[in-house]
Amino acid sequence: MAQVNQAPDSKAPAAGAAIAADGLVFAYGERRALDGVSFAIQKGEKHGFLGPNGSGKSTLFKLLSTLVPLQQGRVTMLGLDLAREAAAIRRKLGVVFQSPAVDKKLTVRENLHYGGLLLGLGGASLRARCDEMLAAANLGDRAADLVGELSGGLRRRVEIAKCLLGQPELVLLDEASTGLDPAARRDLWTVLKAIPGLTVVFTTHLMDEAAEADRLTLLDQGKVVAAGAPAALMREVGGQVLDLEATDAAALANELQRELGVTARVLDGALRLDGERVHELVPAIVQRFGARVLRLSLAHPSLQDVFLLRTGKRFVVTEPDPAPKKGRRRKS
Ligand code: ADP
Ligand code: MG
User: Fold this and answer.
1) What residues line ligand 1, using a CB cutoff of 6 Å?
2) Nearest atom within ligand 1 for CA of residue 58
3) d(Cα 60, Cα 67) in Å, to the nearest integer?
4) Whose CA is nearest to atom 13 of ligand 1?
5) What's the pLDDT score for residue 258?
6) In this structure, what DSSP letter does residue 43 have?
7) Do domains 17-229 and 239-300 have the same CATH topology?
8) Pairwise CA distance, residues 34 & 56, whole Å
9) Ligand 2 center–CA 253 separation, angstroms
10) Burial 61-100 (b: 16+ CB within 10 A, else e)
């Protein structure tokens, strides 16, 4: 329904582009998980893909991390063509999957060490690189701990440290902060943002994490529904958002239209008004309809409102993955 707000540069790969994707389609059998997705990500950018479950984030992540072949469309990554130069791209990537990929029976340092051996590192340079990454991820005093005994947040930091060992130019993270509390999530971002010039592409279904991005692409049902800096996207919604709960929402919407000339949308039985001057309506609404209003709230637009404006749907947040197993003693 809504028009797509594509970044103007999405068709032409700019010189500073880390990734330029054009017209990506990926189908599992008949089902299109990605349906004509285009975007451009600049070097050094922290770029988030935000969307509800099933919107195609993990499929896009698998394509970019070269795990599944390109079916349709074109992708240039770090100056290389994804269809023809996947192996060369892989050497420049660091990848953190949605499911943990560290060995719980090994210590933190052993996990990094073996990760480094797989990358072809070794000897003194590998030891030095491990020390460097342990320090960067603030894990220096945990090096000898078994990963299985660490909290979810620390374990994620081990994965980040491991993915940075090979000095990637581009890091891809799929729902990397799922299951982490807000403090652990902030720690993870502190580590990533401290690495100069690193391009980070991440997927999330969490609005507050999405706000960490320099730029965002909002996905719904395999399509781009909005793109831009979080603040710019929210400005686009308008000045403020007025939510009204009333005993008879649909009838009230009609009366608001008739008496005040304003259009309210009915969403899940409540009314929503947005726009630059929506706050000016509050006195008139309270005066005329106050007795029927159960709740009235005025707020700045959120990314949730951007999604709503673009898709006409609320963003239903559910956990994509089971929470870490319970009943195990965890240190933090
Ligand atoms: P997200 O990560 O945003 O939740 P996914 O990329 O995992 O989205 O899924 C996008 C769509 O593709 C969903 O409809 C999902 O059911 C479908 N899908 C994902 N993986 C597979 C698969 N291996 N086989 C068939 N369908 C899949
Ligand atoms: Mg996913």
Assistant:
1) 28, 31, 33, 51, 53-59, 320
2) 2
3) 10
4) 54
5) 95
6) T
7) no
8) 6
9) 37
10) bbbbbbeeebeebebbbbebebeeebeebeebbbbbbbeb
Q: Whose CA is nearest to atom 23 of ligand 1?
A: 28
Cα(98) to ligand 2 centroid in Å equals 7
Domain topology for 239-300:
Alpha-Beta Plaits (3.30.70)
Burial class (CB within 10 angstroms; exposed 0-12, middle 13-18, buried 19+) of 197 = exposed
9 alpha-carbon distance from chain centroid: 20
Give me ligand 2 centre to Cα 243, in Å: 31
Q: Tokens 């189908």, residue?
A: 27
The 3-state DSSP composition of the chain as helix, strand, coil percent (nearest 5) reads 35, 25, 40
- Give the atom of ligand 1 at the shortest distance from the alpha carbon of 29: 25
Given pLDDT bands bounded at 50, 70 and 90, which one contains residue 220? very high
Residue 7 has pLDDT above 50, yes or no: no
pLDDT reported for residue 277: 84
Which residue's C-alpha comes closest to atom 17 of ligand 1?
33
Look at residue 301 in the predicted model and tell me its pLDDT.
Answer: 86
Residue whose CA is closest, atom 7 of ligand 1?
58
Q: Whose CA is nearest to atom 22 of ligand 1?
A: 28
Please, which pLDDT band fits residue 183 given cuts at 50, 70 and 90?
A: confident
Return the best residue to mutate from 55, 59, 97 for the ligand 1 pocket (most ligand atoms within 8 A of CB). Answer: 59
State the DSSP code for 36.
Answer: E
Domain boundaries, the chain: 17-229, 239-300
More confident residue, 325 or 187: 187
First to last CA, the chain: 46
pLDDT given at position 26: 98
Between 3.40.50.300, 2.60.40.10, 3.90.1150.10, 1.10.10.10, what CATH number should domain 17-229 receive? 3.40.50.300
